[in-house]
Amino acid sequence: MNKQYEEIDIKRIADFHSTLSQCPIHLFGLKREDKGDYVFTHSSGTMYDALGVANKPAPGTKLNELHSKELVSNWTPQIEKAFSGETQTADIEVANQKIRTTLYPVTGENRVIGTSYMLPLHDQTESIRDNKFRQLFDHALEAIVLCRSNLEIAEVNERACELLELPRDELVGRNAGTFFMKNGKEIIKKKWKEVMYGNKISGEFRYRTPAGYLKEIEYTCEKDMVDHLHVTILKDVTDQKITEQKLLKAETLNVVGELAAGVAHEIRNPLTSLKGFVQLIQNQTDDFDQYLSIILSEVDRIEHIIKEFLVLSKSNSQNFKESCIDAIIKDTVDLLNTQAIMKNIEISTGFENEIPLIFCDPMQLKQVFINFIKNAIEASSDGNKVDVNIKWCPDTNYVQIQICDYGCGMEESVLKKIGKPFFTTKDEGTGLGLMVSNNIIKHHNGKLDVQSEKGIGTKFIISLPVNQQN
Questions:
Q1: pLDDT at 367
Q2: How many domains does the chain have?
Q3: Burial (0-12, 13-18, 19+ Cβ within 10 Å), 28
Q4: Using one digit for the tens of pLDDT, what is the confidence trace for 108-130?
């Protein structure tokens, strides 16, 4: 050992270990050879004797002759930093005993000196406990995010990466508020102050994944849970929200169905009396036969509408038969042509040849088409047209009816509400027409798709199965 080694570095080691008189230590020196091997230049102390290890390092011994290649590979970054002038500390395991090693650079020399000592039992226990906590954190079933007081993300576990669909290196260091959408960012900043005062907070926020999907996420935050870091637990409740919405819609439909049944029955009673008196007048005189026939015809149509309204409170219909969809559409168009002409609207029809028969209730479907075509007429401006097209899709075995207008169209926010009970964009509407129509289509095992764009127009696409028995 040279003078500089003895006078400067050994003194520093002795001072460092002055409090460890009861703990066996190992003092050693390492130099780096041209081939990259690390070789012991000095080795002394009683630590290896205390460990009961016979194969002790001696001057000239290479590090990889004493320890495995994998272990030396793990130490290499720290050893290299020590050779570059940085003091390094690492905990290693020798003979099933935790050893703490510190490497000190030797000024002006291509070597380092080191000290190793056995960790006291309580320090080993803490190390093991920290390891266990880390494993629990990494493999927890819940998504866990550790934040600093300024909302900067300090650490995340694997489940959080899966939930947010981002790798760890893209999450750590970011401000957690950036994951909240719109006014949610301001809300979490205000609520985070409560966390800093020691209050536990919880809530929900919407998160858009890198792929563009929206997730509903529930969060709970608590202060100083781990080393002055604040813990946030995240939970994906997207499916739960969808289920809740479906249950709410089902309950609403059930209530509306009961209401529809009651109202329809109340209307039917006076209607029956009205129809009877009209027929009585018709039998007694021929003077107003033309007008009375029209009244009876309209009363019959009202009865059919009431019958379709009652679909909301019935599980199925008893009037299914094979029918020609072309004929049903033509009857509907003929019925609404007068209203279209009064608004200077043209109803244009386009039917493919050889459209197959479908198994349906013609009166129910007629009510559906009346609702949609009537809506298209009302949404159209003077001089516009409404397109009604039928085509058969042999690949899917569905007949598709498209009813398209070129009117005002709907914004996305309005489109999402279409079909909900009592929601309507009309001043005098009830909001039940589309819901009733959609229910009829479902009873026919069909599908309804609505496409709309503000200022462009709206298209209703009704797909009905061919020859499918209910």
A1: 81
A2: 4
A3: buried
A4: 777 888 888 776 654 544 454 55
